[in-house]
Design a protein that fits this description.
The protein is built from three helices and four strands, in the order H-H-E-E-H-E-E. It is of the alpha+beta class. It has one domain.
Length: 135
């Protein structure tokens, strides 16, 4: 199945997630299942940002009387190459739509003293991760 996914660069990574979670919080029922209904614009925006993300982990969740869910944790890493895990998850989520998302930001510290610095220094950078549930 192919979805028409728009370019979301004007809102960026966090903006697309914020719009999606705001739609869910306002009571908009997200289509689920094997894409029987067309995706909402917020779902398309969320799917569009995944091209700049790399999969960190995933898990299948099976609930009685419901669709099987796929929980995927992505790391925002626009300049990193795709991995086989990315391809595996893309295949597993084919035909599924996101029904919830949560974002976390943490600070990653890198010790640069090994790169020839005379004094011990750490460089910090924010790392954004998003956990998305597909159904």
């Amino acid at each position: 199945m192919s979805l028409d996914v728009p370019n979301v660069t004007r809102r960026g990574f966090l903006g697309a997630i914020a719009a999606f979670t705001a739609a869910v919080a306002s009571g908009v029922r997200m289509p689920a299942g094997i894409a029987k209904s067309p995706p909402l614009p917020a779902q398309c925006d969320l799917l569009a940002i995944l091209k700049d993300c790399r999969v960190e982990s995933y898990a299948h969740e099976f609930i009685v009387d419901s669709y099987a869910r796929l929980n995927v944790t992505y790391r925002h890493a626009p300049h990193e190459p795709r991995t086989t895990l990315d391809d595996l998850v893309d295949k597993a989520r084919e035909g599924r739509l996101p029904i919830s998302a949560s974002v976390q930001t943490h600070i990653e510290s890198i010790d640069v003293s090994e790169f020839g610095s005379a004094q011990e220094r750490d460089v910090v950078r924010p790392v954004h991760t998003v956990e998305i549930v597909f159904a």
